[in-house]
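User: My collaborator sent over this chain with a note saying "see what the structure looks like." That's all I know about it. Can you take a look?
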Amino acid sequence: MMGGGMNGMMWAMDILGLLLLAALVLGIAALGKYLFARK
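Assistant: Without extra context I'll predict from the sequence alone. Here is the result:
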């Protein structure tokens, strides 16, 4: 196996991806709620 540095980076990328996905979902939900409230 290669050093744990690569593994740690992959782990960080996974967390970053999850955070990005969560932010995207929250953003879409907030936008939908905002548009729905304006009607």
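A starting point for your reply to your collaborator: Residues 11 and 21 are 15 Å apart (CA to CA).
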